[in-house]
Specification:
The chain has 16 helices and 21 strands. By secondary structure, it is of the alpha+beta class.
Length: about 600
């Protein structure tokens, strides 16, 4: 448990230990010359050229009316785009100056850093009730991230910048972050409390506040308080993981949340010469393996909840974890992820700095191969692979859980069927983040309803949000012949569904050339006959035949056999679903009982067509 690191113990360790800086400042020319040599002239030239473009651009303005756009229209991007551009510019200029060491980026860097210090709030409008109250700073994800980025600027170039820049950064960090963290108790993300569960916010906020304090806090006893208070908070974050290391937030938010946990853990480990070790916790070790265990095919992961179908994980995070835990497949995954485009937060200084110093080992350029079967009993996720050594092999991912999970969508019992690096039966991911997406209207969004997932519709009823709407595991099996998850979904639906029992059985069979997936829904109604539909969701087109539906995504296809004596098949297209990656058409393939029934079994057999 991280709470073992109380402030007195940490203070004692800090007093005894001395450590070198975690990364060399720009004045250490031998270290930066070695980095330049490792990168090569082409990459260094590209980074300097990007900084030259940035240096010619004005600092993007952030007026009050732009801040208010979120409250007036619900849209986030008008303010967030220039906000993120400022941080990307900080990284562009700082790293180019460290590499080149000619001083020509110092003035543009001064302008950007000073402008960030002058922002009324470092937190985004979406995390405020209105225009910022500058007397009571909002401390959340992006304020904490900003603190670390400015602190690392001081580490790298504080001696080269105007002397008032470091003084200003120290003042603003203390006023906006460190003092509030130590003196206030109104941060919902700090600890798990009734009505407020911890999530990635806890790791990002507490982790970056620890990081910022390690760089900038000169009072040893205060630093010890920050580390100890943050460690207690990170304990609660680690408790959000399944006993096997899974997170219901999915792999994308693992990269964000656990990534910043690791960032803080590294700095604490380095500052205390390993005497305060967050990574020794078994929960952290298991959590480090999460992306490997949820991989469907190379660089494609099970994307339940608010997770995009295609994600980018921080490559230096994977490198660090691979080396720390000596897991070669994490290094292989790091090499694989280098081919992915960075996400929108990839421009920040913290990870770009670590990209230079935590480079993947090219000796591990082979593909990371997952296990044949992965099972997270706490959150009820099963990922089953016919042949994990085959990157095009058939994969089944199923989840149970409940409808009050972190970044919840009403998706208890949903599944993904993946073949040839394509999800034919898909989880469509997350919607575009707006004001209402995280407000009372969240479940008015198609993407968050069970209608937007491969789930039954029972007597016209969809699933409802709340922890009471949950699955129970009736059977979990994994052997050479098949992998199976049998879930009781009765309580995932509201009383209007009139269910006596609804049991879903999803099985990956390994016989045959490609294997096949079997999905069975057994339904019994409580008070009379009822209507029932089993629905599959896809980004592809559906061709309806008398006993088979073929789903096709490009050149990849999946056949779904059904019994026409039991159900009729039809398809409907939901146009322009507002997803984070842009509007997309989504196909709902519906297998509906031919008429009302007291009890029924709907059986679907999914196979890869020949050829």
């Amino acid at each position: 448990m991280l709470s073992q690191y109380d402030p007195v113990k940490v203070d004692f360790i800090l007093r005894e230990e001395r450590a070198l800086p975690p990364f060399p400042p720009a004045t250490d020319r031998s270290a930066w010359s070695a980095i330049k040599e490792a990168l090569g002239g082409e990459q260094v030239g590209a980074m300097v050229a990007a900084a030259e473009v940035t240096a010619r651009e004005p600092v993007p303005p952030l007026p009050a009316t732009l801040f208010l756009e979120f409250f007036r229209s619900g849209s986030r991007q008008e303010y967030e785009t220039p906000w993120f551009r400022r941080r990307a510019a900080l990284a562009d200029l700082a790293l180019a100056e460290c590499l080149e060491d000619q001083g020509r980026f110092l003035d543009p860097l001064l302008d950007v850093a000073w402008a960030i210090c002058e922002e009324s709030s470092w937190e985004l409008p979406a995390h405020h009730p209105d225009l910022p109250d500058v007397t009571y700073p909002e401390v959340g994800l992006f304020a904490a991230l900003t603190g670390t980025q400015l602190a690392e600027l001081v580490l790298l170039l504080g001696a080269r910048l105007h002397p008032q820049v470091e003084a200003r950064i120290r003042h603003e960090v203390d006023r906006r972050i460190l003092t509030p963290f130590l003196t206030r108790h109104d941060f919902w993300w700090l600890h798990h409390t009734p009505g407020h569960a911890t999530c990635n916010w806890t790791a990002v906020c507490s982790g970056n506040i620890i990081a910022t304090a390690i760089y900038l806090e000169r009072d040893r006893s205060r630093l010890a308080e920050v580390i100890a208070r943050g460690a207690r908070s990170l304990d609660d974050y680690l408790d959000t993981f399944d006993a096997e290391g899974g997170s219901t937030e999915g792999p994308a938010y693992w990269g964000f949340g656990f990534g910043n946990f690791a960032l803080a853990g590294h700095l604490v480990h380095q500052r205390t010469n390993g005497r305060v070790d967050f990574f020794a916790d078994e929960r952290a070790r298991k959590a480090a393996l999460f992306p490997l265990r949820t991989m469907l095919s190379p660089n494609v992961f099970a994307n339940f909840s608010d997770c995009d179908p295609e994600i980018s994980l921080p490559v230096p995070l994977l490198v660090f974890l691979a080396r720390h835990y000596r897991v070669d497949d994490l290094m292989r995954l790091a090499n694989m992820q280098r081919a992915m485009p960075p996400d929108r937060h990839g421009g920040e200084l913290s990870w770009r700095l670590r990209e230079l110093f935590w480079q993947p080992d090219p000796a591990f350029d082979q593909r990371a191969i997952p296990a044949r079967h992965d099972w997270y009993p706490g959150m009820q996720w099963m990922i089953a692979r016919v042949d994990p050594a085959d990157p095009d092999g058939l994969v089944l991912a199923v989840k149970g859980g409940h409808n009050n999970e972190m970044h919840n969508q009403n998706d208890v019992g949903t599944l993904i069927v993946h073949h040839h690096r394509t999800s034919l039966v898909a989880d469509i991911g997350r919607g575009r983040y707006t004001r209402e997406y995280f407000a009372a209207g969240r479940y008015d969004y198609f993407v968050n309803t069970s209608l937007g997932h491969s789930l039954p519709v029972v007597n016209g009823c969809a699933q409802q949000p709340g922890e009471a709407y949950a699955a129970g595991v009736l059977e979990h099996r994994a052997d050479e012949r098949c992998d199976r998850l049998r879930l009781d979904l009765t309580h995932a639906y509201p009383p209007g569904a009139d269910l006596a029992e609804l049991v879903r059985t999803a099985t990956l069979h390994r016989e045959g050339q490609h294997g096949w997936v079997e999905l069975i829904d057994d339904v019994t109604f409580a008070s009379g006959e009822g209507a029932f539909e089993s629905v599959l969701i896809s980004f592809g087109a559906a061709e309806i035949w008398p006993e088979t539906v073929r789903i096709r995504v490009g050149d990849i296809a999946l056949d779904i056999a059904y019994d026409p004596a039991v159900v009729a098949a039809r398809a409907e297209v939901v146009k322009d679903v507002d997803l984070a990656t842009g509007p997309r058409d989504v196909t709902r393939v519906i297998f509906a009982l031919l008429g009302p029934s007291k009890t029924a079994r709907v059986r679907l057999c999914m196979t890869v067509p020949p050829g």
